[in-house]
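Ticket #4471: structure export looks truncated?
Reporter: QA, pipeline team
Priority: medium

Steps to reproduce: submit the single chain below to the structure queue and open the exported record.
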Amino acid sequence: MTRVLLAQPESFPIAGSFTISRGSKTEAEVICCTIVENGTAGRGECVPYRRYGETIASVLAAIEERRADIERGITREELIEAMPAGAARNALDCALWDLEAKRSGRTVAQMLAIARPEPITTAFTLSLDTPEKMAAQARANSDRPLLKVKIGGQGDVERVQAVVEAAPRSRIILDANEGWTEADLAENLEMAARLGVSLVEQPLAAGQDEALRGISRPVSVCADESVHTADHLERLVGLYDAVNIKLDKAGGLTAALQLKTRARELGFGIMVGCMVGTSLGMAPAVLLAQDADFVDLDGPLLLARDREPGLIYAGSLVSPPSSDLWG
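Actual output as written to the record:
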């Protein structure tokens, strides 16, 4: 067996800009890993995320540290033990899944015993802005069944009201990105319930989760930054109703599957989400999300340019990946 590991940073322009409570960006910076074994190539993509102390340079360095392991034939199970969760492990793990599928002649869906993966409905994200501009975003996407609304600060009531009025037939997820405080938590949750919101994602900063204990939650609350791997779940029981599983947080599809299984056992609802990346990064998550309660895999829809070939989106409906993309 001869394996070669390649890792390449890439940049894809965002259509306009993407703004959350922590700031804005105009391009998606990703790393594509390719593992070539005897002429067969498997690929995986990750998005280094500064919120977790990751940069393009640090993730490339972490991947390089595992070059010898990858090229000697490390398995996905061994990789979980050898590397911490995060973007670097995600790219390598997903590349190993893709390589295994292509070498075996089976799809990853078949490897996961998904008899017939189906198209799924994804949320479409509205960037944080003034109420007037967010209403315009909502109006332009009012035919989408599920909108994810970025909020997190003063003026959130006006923002949400404007979106609801502009897209009255869409279900709404509010994503505060840790932007609320314990002082305004109860009031904001009541506002969300009054306006018919379906889910509130990560209202408080990670580490402040205990503020959710014992308070009324008239809207389901989903953990994002507060949960990365299955090890984080036990302490969140009774605080959150659902968890957002992202491959870049969990450190790959292998760990994400473990997280999903344990979350179901503990009674959490499942959301499968993403960073802003290309179809290559979304492809494994589409399979992970086949039975999820909420899906937020709109990364390619936010880009001015995606990979070719990419995932096929029909409005908010995203189809499972073709094998020439991934898996």
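Status: closed, not a bug. The export was complete when the record was re-opened. Leaving a note from the reviewer for reference: The CA atoms of residues 270 and 292 lie 5 Å apart.
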